[in-house]
Design goal:
The chain has a nine-stranded mixed beta sheet, sandwiched between helices. It has a six-stranded antiparallel beta sheet with strand order 8-7-10-5-6-9, covered by helices on one side. A three-stranded antiparallel beta sheet has the order 11-12-22. Helix 6 packs across helix 7 and helix 8 crosses helix 10. Strand 7 and strand 8 form a beta hairpin. By secondary structure, the protein is α/β, with parallel strands linked by helices.
Length: 450
């Protein structure tokens, strides 16, 4: 077992609970390996190492090979966003004597799983003068944490009659952030005291002002993400697994980045791409459905070719090969009826390849070509990487998507490649350490042999 890889991975998860935090870590790693911001380079040649970022929430790393970009590049593409809760733009309110932070959930979650957990707030606030304020509350042992309350079983008779989707409404996923003494009016003198009382909301705002220098209006230009508080931990008496938040898809992102750094470009240029917004459809300027990646390739072409050509950009994209680095559902022995066992990915089974994702009739899938899969199989066998071919679940049971079909629209070969996750999209997810190691080795093999 590669203990350094496992230790570094857990640190990456602990320090990267948002997209911005992941990009910041990747840049620090890249600089140690000699990578430069592409904006500091007027031209590029074989052997050069550069990175391109977009809005601090997406990043691409490139090592230039000796061959023309027209002939395509090898790409490891992952996403670094994970299901969570986001603070609304006017989030702070007081209800009776409890102060709350109003949220809007992000991505596919089971809402009831987010109640009664210790939660932390990560993100940024931009003040009107452009000042950026980084916010992390709930991770240091000395920090307070936050929580969403739930109904006690003794009074939950009506709640328990609901379906799981209705146990708790999206509008009820609000964080408890403060408490004041309850008000009791018994005579006129108490009413006078009430007039003089400072609301708990004002107290909370005062604390934020003291620590971060932000006003209530600054929430309007904030990006605050609510995530589980706490560190990635070994799971099981044999320590064979990892329990952590955000392993979909930061397990694949970390393995891609590390494999990229530990490989060397030969003829073909190598690329590691980490994008945002996959959990909500890859939308927005930092998602794969945008022109993000083709713009990055255009920047590369402009610095490597004597004369810039849009045709070179298009040929580069069409002739490229990508492993869409994303996780798959692990076979769950407690719920075997949801899976076609022979076509499922098992924890500890190694890197997982999915010919197609999507749902019911392959809707939303890229459906990789067998010629490309054969090439990948050959690369895995050369490096003695343990791998498995799998689907997410039974055909009519459901499904899921990745960034694969967004890359396939350029005409490149794309295959989904990740690891199996148990309790996917829960606040705490489970992976196998063995799978992480095989994932890392598999990604390296792709870059070396494909």
């Amino acid at each position: 077992m590669n203990n350094t890889l496992i230790t570094d991975y857990k640190k990456f998860l602990d320090n990267g609970k948002t997209e911005r935090e992941c990009v910041e870590q990747i840049i620090k790693m890249a600089k140690k390996y000699g990578f430069k911001d592409i904006n500091s380079c007027n031209s590029l040649k074989s052997g050069d190492k550069v990175y391109i970022t977009k809005m601090d929430k997406a990043i691409a790393l490139f090592e230039i090979g000796s061959d023309s970009l027209e002939n395509g590049i090898n790409i490891l593409g992952a996403h670094i966003d994970s299901p969570r809760l986001d603070a609304k733009q006017k989030p702070l309110y007081e209800k009776d004597n409890i102060t709350y932070l109003n949220t809007h959930y992000y991505g596919g979650i089971k809402k009831y799983q987010w109640t009664t957990l210790p939660l932390a707030i990560h993100g940024v606030v931009f003040k009107k003068d452009g000042t950026k304020v980084n916010v992390v509350i709930g991770e240091d042992p000395a920090d307070p944490v936050f929580c969403i309350s739930d109904i006690l079983p003794h009074l939950a008779q009506e709640q328990m009659k609901n379906s799981a989707t209705d146990f708790i409404k999206g509008e009820d996923l609000d964080l408890i952030v403060g408490l004041s003494a309850p008000e009791k009016e018994t005579d006129g003198s108490k009413k006078d005291e009430k007039k003089d009382k400072v609301s708990n909301k004002k107290i909370i705002l005062g604390l934020l002002k003291d620590k971060y220098g932000i006003e209530e209006g600054d929430f309007e230009s904030a990006e605050l993400e609510i995530v589980p508080a706490g560190l990635a931990r070994d799971l099981g008496l044999d320590r064979s697994m990892i329990l952590a938040y955000g392993q979909d898809d930061r397990s694949c992102a970390f393995a891609s980045v590390q494999a990229f750094f530990d490989s060397k470009a030969n003829k073909r240029t190598n690329c590691c791409l980490c994008v945002d917004k996959e959990e909500i459809g890859s939308v927005g300027a930092t998602g794969m459905a945008s022109n993000l990646f083709e713009n990055m390739i255009a920047e590369l072409v402009a610095r490597t070719e004597k004369t810039y050509s849009e045709l070179t950009v298009r040929r580069c994209l069409a002739n490229s090969a990508m492993l869409s680095s994303d996780v798959n559902a692990a076979y769950d022995p407690m719920n075997p009826n949801l899976f076609d066992k022979e076509n499922s990915s098992a924890l500890g089974g190694g890197i997982t390849f999915q010919k197609y994702t999507g749902s019911r009739g392959k809707s939303g899938a890229s459906d990789a070509n067998p010629e490309f899969i054969a090439k990948i199989r050959n690369a895995m066998d050369k490096s003695k990487v343990k791998y498995q071919m799998a689907e997410l679940g039974k055909v009519d049971q459901g499904g899921g998507g990745t960034i694969a079909y967004h890359a396939a629209k350029y005409g490149m070969n794309v295959l989904d490649a990740g690891l199996a996750v148990l309790s996917m999209h829960a606040p705490w997810e489970i992976i196998s350490k063995e799978d992480l190691q095989q994932l890392y080795e598999g990604y390296k093999s792709f870059l070396i042999y494909c």
